[in-house]
Prior knowledge:
By secondary structure, the protein is an alpha+beta fold. The protein has helices spanning 46-53, 76-81; strands at residues 6-17, 20-31, 61-66, 69-70. The chain starts with 5 loop residues before the first strand and ends with a helix.
Amino acid sequence: MSAHPIAIEFDDVVAGYKDFMILNNLSLKARAGAITLLIGPNGAGKSTVLKTLFGLLKPRQGRIRLHGDDITGASQKDLLARGIA
């Protein structure tokens, strides 16, 4: 087992704007206590990942977990209470 447990996990997430999907089956893991970078060219979906994590966009598919708890589709108020802003 890793010294750094998984803090944030995207599992097969699909999200975007109206009929235009930006995140297509995104899976990623960010570990607690580790530095994780989200890099890519303009239009690659970096901001969409964060907007989906922050509850500004609802995923159409997949799961988002915070320390193992499913936060998929949680309200911004609930996410803020969990420390996500």
